[in-house]
Amino acid sequence: MTEDSQRNFRSVYYEKVGFRGVEEKKSLEILLKDDRLGILPPHHESHAQVMMYRKEQYSDVLHALKVVRFVNDATPQVEVYLRMYQLESGKLPRNPSFPLKPEDEVFLAIAKAMEEMVEDSVDCYWITRCFVNQLNKYRDSLPQLAVRGGNVMSWEVSNLFLFHHQPKAFEQYLNLEDSRLLSHLKMCSAVSRLPYDLWFKRCFAGCLPESSLQRVWDKVVSGSCKILVFVAVEILLTFKLKVMALNNSEKITKFLENIPQDSSDAIVSKAIDLWHKHCGTPVHSA
User: Fold this and answer.
1) CB–CB of 205/110 below 8 Å?
2) Mean pLDDT for the stretch of residues 136-159
3) C-alpha distance from residue 100 to each of 32, 92, 96, 190 (Å)
4) What is the signed CA dihedral for 257, 260, 262, 264, rounded to 10 degrees?
5) At what angle do helices 155-177 and 121-146 cross, to 10 degrees?
6) Between 230 and which of 35, 38, 226, 271 could a Cys-Cys bridge form, CB atoms 3.0 to 4.6 Å apart?
7) Taking a C-beta distance cutoff of 8 angstroms, is the pair 174, 233 a contact?
8) pLDDT in tens, 2-11
9) Ordered DSSP codes for 263-277
């Protein structure tokens, strides 16, 4: 293996222990020895200065929100992140009492999960902000792939496209893996009522524990939101007996919204296997 191929450390897996998605230490060390990391900032000697700027920006935005009385010391931290994001993106409502929009609820869910992964509040905000922006890019690009002319769509329209696109792919792959299970879902009128919002809009935030969620989000960040489809398929396959024993859509949806957490690591590992099975070795595959 050449050094260049080793540098792509996210494509190297611990196949000898039976699961995918964990970086080889040797490949990671090669990457970190290189001055140009391929992520911002490109030189590691700039990191401290960039982080100082980000901390200052964080403090300035937070101060502005306190001045206009959108947040205070008692405001939950994830809500502070949301208001900061709204202010920086020009979407701060006129009044903090205005009801939250669907995309705000998605941001809060992701921020809450991120808060369990990242201790520092400044880092947590910046990572959440960048992750949400990455998801929005996916949502904006999907209509451009389907509509000739590539017109830029609003969050609501592009999100609606994603909402219909992912469930369709989910149904397709579930049918390939277990057509009998899909038939049961259709018989119970459950296909259209599955927790797609939780799975595909919130990227399983609030569904999977953070240790498993990190492995899924790693794939999303590195270029493939289709991994979300295979995680959803694997959830159904893992809990097939339970789902087949339920005979109405409400019970099925309620169960899938609160799946047992002790199976999550195995679900993600098997989902990555499915991803490779159906997509080969996908690189930046949306």
Assistant:
1) yes
2) 46
3) 41, 11, 9, 28
4) -30
5) 80
6) 271
7) yes
8) 444 444 444 4
9) GHHHHHHHHHHHHHH
Cα separation, 123 vs 140, whole angstroms: 26
- Of 151, 134, 101, nearest to 223 by C-alpha is 134
- CA distances to 59, 175, 271 from 243, rounded to whole Å, are 48, 15, 18
| DSSP3 helix / strand / coil % (the chain, rounded to 5) | 70, 0, 30
* Look-up of token digits 């109405």: 248
- The type of residue at 170 is F
Task: List the structure tokens of 242.
Answer: 């339970």
User: In terms of Cα–Cα distance, which of 271, 245, 258, 257 is closest to 185?
Assistant: 245
User: Residue 261: which residues within 8 A CB-CB, separation 6 or more?
Assistant: 208, 209
**Cα 169 from Cα 173, distance rounded (Å):** 6
The yes-or-no verdict on residue 26 having pLDDT over 60 is: no
Per-residue pLDDT tens for 159-200? 444 444 677 889 999 999 999 999 999 999 999 999 999 999
Q: What does the block give as tokens for 35? A: 């001055």
- In the three-class reduction of DSSP (H, G, I as helix; E, B as strand; rest coil), residue 69 is classed as coil
Contact at 8 Å (CB) between 111 and 78?
yes
The answer to whether residues 27 and 20 touch, using CB atoms and an 8 Å cutoff, is: no
What pLDDT is recorded for position 224?
Answer: 81
Compute the distance between CA of residue 238 and CA of residue 235 in angstroms, rounded to an integer.
5
Residues 263, 238: contact at Cβ < 8 Å? Answer: yes
The phi and psi torsions of 96 (rounded to 5 degrees) equal -65, -15
For the segment 235-249, what is each residue's pLDDT rounded down to a tens digit? 999 999 999 999 999
| pLDDT on residue 198 | 93
